Amino acid sequence: RKDHNEEEQHLSDGRWLRVQERTTPDGGRVGLAVDVTALKRAEQNARADLTTAMDASQDGIAIVDAEGRYVYMNPAHREMFGIGSPAEILGRSWRDLYAPEVADHIAATAFPILQAEGGWRGEIIGRTVDGHDLPQEVSLTLKADGGIICISRDISKRLREQGEQTRLREELQMAQRREVIGQLASGLAHDLNNLLAAIGGSATLIRDLK
User: What pTM does this model have?
Assistant: First the structure.
């Protein structure tokens, strides 16, 4: 028999008791019951508030257990991947949302850092339920029970904007090069005209001297 035992009991009237039992020096047992109903309700309210905040987040939030199976995914994360309801994803492996080679790359590169440092951040390519690529900025946090919290953001728009900025920058550079070439050609043409005019004038003088 244990010298010390502690457990929580949920009573039929809705109250919670935290019961502690200890062995006395003479071999007897003494117990102490503390009403922790208010604490339990505060914890439940805190969990409800946290769930509400995660559900309302514009960033995708997902949680997997130690076996890599989804136990929670907020609406923003489901919308990114085209998942209609929690029932379609809960209990499935995180690998289902990535191409096999991408999932292997994550497991080989991100997970060792996650295990060693407790967190990892990077950009990866997910795969929507209809098979399209989904560029993501992802932050992973290791939970005490071995599960993982994933916060994800769709960066498709940002990459498109960066690509458009690169294209415009290249077009500007090309236009500037063309302008420089045009200025050089104009200058050369002007100098050539001056040279031809001088040659023409000299030819006229030579003709008049004959």
Answer: 0.59
